[in-house]
Amino acid sequence: MSLNIIVLAKQVPDTRNVGKDAMKADGTVNRAALPAIFNPEDLNALEQALKLKDMYPGTKVTLLTMGPGRAAEIIREGLYRGADDGVVLSDRAFAGSDTLATSYALATAVRKIGNFDLIIGGRQAIDGDTAQVGPQIAEKLGLPQVTYAEDIIKAENGKVTVKRRIEAGVETVTAPYPLVITVNGSADDCRPRNAKATMKYKYAAAPSEVAADEAKKELLDKKPYLRIGEWSAADVDADLAQCGLAGSPTKVKGIENVVFTAKEARNVEPTDEALEDLIKELIANHTIG
Amino acid sequence: MANFYTDNPALRHYLTHPMMEKIVKLKERDYTDVDKYDYAPYDYADAVDSYDRVLNIVGEICGDIIAENAEEVDHNGPRVENNRVIYAEGTQRNLDACRKAGLMGMAMPRRLGGLNFPITPYIMAADIVSRADAGFENLWGLQDCAETIYEFASDEQKEKYIPRVCAGETMSMDLTEPDAGSDLQSVMLKASQKEDGSWVLNGVKRFITNGDADIHLVLARSEEGSHDGRGLSMFIYDKRNGGVNVRRIENKMGIKGSPTCELVYKDAPAELVGSRRLGLIKYVMALMNGARLGIAAQSVGLSEIAYREAYQYAVERMQFGKAIINFPAVAEMLSLMKAKLDASRALLYACARFVDMYKIYDDIAKERALTVEEKKEAKYYSKLADAFTPLAKGMTSEYANQNAYDCIQIHGGSGFMKDYACERIYRDARITSIYEGTTQLQTVAAIRHVTTGTYLNKIKEFEAEQVHPEDEGIKNTLVFMTQQYANAVQAVMGVNDSNYQDFMARRLVEMAGHIIMGYLLLEDTQRDDSFRRSLHVYVNYGQAEVAKHADFIGNFRPEEIKDYLYNEPAAAE
User: Fold this and answer.
1) What is the DSSP string of A47-64?
2) Considering B371, B405, B433, which residue would you say is the last residue of a domain?
3) Which domain holds residue B528?
4) Structural domains of chain A, ranges and CATH numbers in brackets
């Protein structure tokens, strides 16, 4: 038994190491100042897919990402780790998408890929932290969804068994597939890049990346497995009214800089009681907890 | 988020050494695998790019996983349950990461599932892994044993075992026994041939690293009634067949994550490798040479981490109102640690390149006859590999120990506590100058290259190389040291007393070592200025060491040897 799995991945600015030039004057993210990385929880999602591939030989793992041509970099990252194929959904028409327009676009691409058993994505991306795109794709495709997954234990006879991380503990659920699963950061880390796969796919590229390089273009023609799929809005028959800014009801009203400053210093007696009081106070005002 | 490859530019410096172009071209047979394997390189640049990428993976796994697990693995260690070894949890995670990354069987040919890496980038991986956790390097580095199967076993055995190693099965080399340590000729483990021609092994092995491995190479006595090395043969034991149990594992001072086993063989089925009687005199010698290069890499990795830990501490530790690195006494220790580290690494990769050259020619010779020119070259490099391997193993392991010692010294009282990594590094380093042949035995292997002039000839080749004008002064120092060395060799050889010559051997080998490492750093400096500081510090140090040895030899009257020798009767049976 083998599965067809689509892994949703996003190239994101590395917001974990933010410098002072991380935001532009207009309040949008200054992507040029931050290294572009594979969204961490999408890597957790990829590991779940690759684990299923180990369990069910013949399973095919296809990565799907939306972004500019350079987002092909994370498709390569996925290929190095064991994914079989990848598609970059790339079109100016998708620029400025909020979660609704993004999930619409990705859903159209999923339909075009077709023939899938599982769609697995990270819980949320570190640039927006909305956790909305996965669930919205499920809605648009009319599929069931399991969120906060920590371990996809098995997928057999049309049913998946998934361990979920919920607020008070873990719960194990079964659900029929096809379905959408979003994976929590507490799941296993993604496996490392594989040496042979890295050497095999190092020249893999989306056509737009090699447009100016005849030798590389020739290589993609000679070795089709190196060609990373690149689809436009027209390729996926997207309704332009639902794409990009036009399809995004979310409007950013304003963004403000929050600067943390130390306001007061307080001496706490080094006794258990004093420390306990302090902890209680910090929990009460939501500083910790 | 650490990467132990990209944060260490010296590695790329050696990866792109001018000799590599020839090594890679020969190894890749003019890049003819490219149409057969989707991961084979097109040309030299493509090959180096691939090595670079794979070492990047090694560096990432080492920084993020193996180094992170090192303390826990050292603390918990492996255990034995029901005669089987159970690795520490961290060791299991490390192995899992290396398997998934496909870092096993790196030097094996592609048709057997390997990456077809030359020895040089493979040794680089060992250097990186050892920096993360020297004990784990032992387990991972035993993939070396596949090399022996590749060189000497039958085609059928190669096809049966090597792909399994490449897929991640572990190996061991079962040589030592309770009464056969340095003296392997005394090995007693019995190999008996049954009527159907198959072999079984019976007996005990001791101090076997990773003794519960999937695939073992075993040295055993196949010739009944024989007593020396010529009665020994090499066998493969496959754990899937059963017959070998782990009686206990040693409680060691260091490299605690690596299980050191006592093994009991009870009618364990085994396959003969190659020809009978060549087990020790040919196959184990080859196996040990590979393993010695591995220990040199392990030593360099340990020197690296010892230096980094010491540097970090010296920068952060404030005393008398300033960071201790700013006190000359501490700065000198650090500079010398760095110089010994850089000199060790220069020697390691020089040796790896020589090994690459002759091994690749050996392999090509199985496919076609070598030309006269190629044969000459193969012989030249084979001799250099033979001379440089014991030198590298001996010098780098002693420096790893010295660097580990100084690392603790720089940490002061804190270094004596279990709170810092330096105490683990100190314990881990201690074995490097002992196993795979003690430093004293490396001297025995190296001394004939002192007497036959292999070292001196190579030194003269270095001397003939042009250097930048600003390096002429240091080159003159090296020329002067060479003269002192040549004089000392002549003086020692002039005394017709083998005890006296053995007594002086290590001094002579070290003198050669200092000069060679000095020249190698000089060569590195010609390509990259960042080596100049270590070049100066190392040559200052080496010059004093060479003078010290020359002085000792010059002042020593051969009859004084009697003050050093013992003449105790042999212990009663």
Assistant:
1) HHHHHHHHHSTT-EEEEE
2) B433
3) 449-563
4) 4-247 (3.40.50.620)
Neighbours of B434 (CB within 10 A): 15
Other beta carbons within 10 Å of B267: 12
How far, CA to CA in Å, does B251 sit from each of A34, B87, B90, B282, B531? 49, 14, 18, 32, 40
Q: Which amino acid is at A21?
A: D
Q: Which two tokens stand for residue B13?
A: 């410096």
pTM over 0.90: yes
Residues of chain A neighbouring B103 (CB-CB closer than 8 A): 195
For residues B41 and B50, the answer to whether their CB atoms sit within 8 Å is yes
Reported as a single tens digit per residue, the pLDDT across B45-103 is: 999 999 999 999 999 999 999 999 999 999 999 999 999 999 999 999 999 999 999 99
For B552-569, write each residue's pLDDT tens digit: 999 999 999 999 999 888
The answer to whether B139 faces chain A, any CB pair under 8 Å, is no
Are B30 and B14 found together in one domain?
A: yes
Query: How many Å apart are CA B573 and CA B571, to the nearest integer?
Result: 6
The total of structural domains in chain B comes to: 3
**Helical H runs in B417-497?**
422-430, 439-451, 454-464, 472-493
Distances in Å between the Cα of B325 and the Cα atoms of B27, B173, B199, B317, B536 are: 45, 43, 61, 8, 19
| CB nearest B57 (choices: A198, A200, A225) | A198
Searching chain B, which residue's CA lies closest to the CA of residue A192? B101
**CA-to-CA separations, B26 to A27, A229, B361, in angstroms, rounded:** 57, 37, 8
The answer to whether residue B104 neighbours chain A at the CB level (below 8 Å) is no
Q: Smallest Cβ distance to B100: which of A194, A223, A225?
A: A194
B176/B268 same-domain check: yes
B311 in the same domain as B329: yes
Look up tokens 């380093």; give the residue.
B429
ipTM above 0.90, yes or no: yes
**Buried b / exposed e along A235-273 (16+ C-beta atoms within 10 A):** bbebeeebbbeebbeeeeeeeeeeeeeeeeeeeeeeeee
Phi, psi (degrees; rounded to nearest 5) at A63: -90, 140
Q: How many residues does chain B have?
A: 573
By the CB < 8 Å criterion, does B106 face chain A? yes
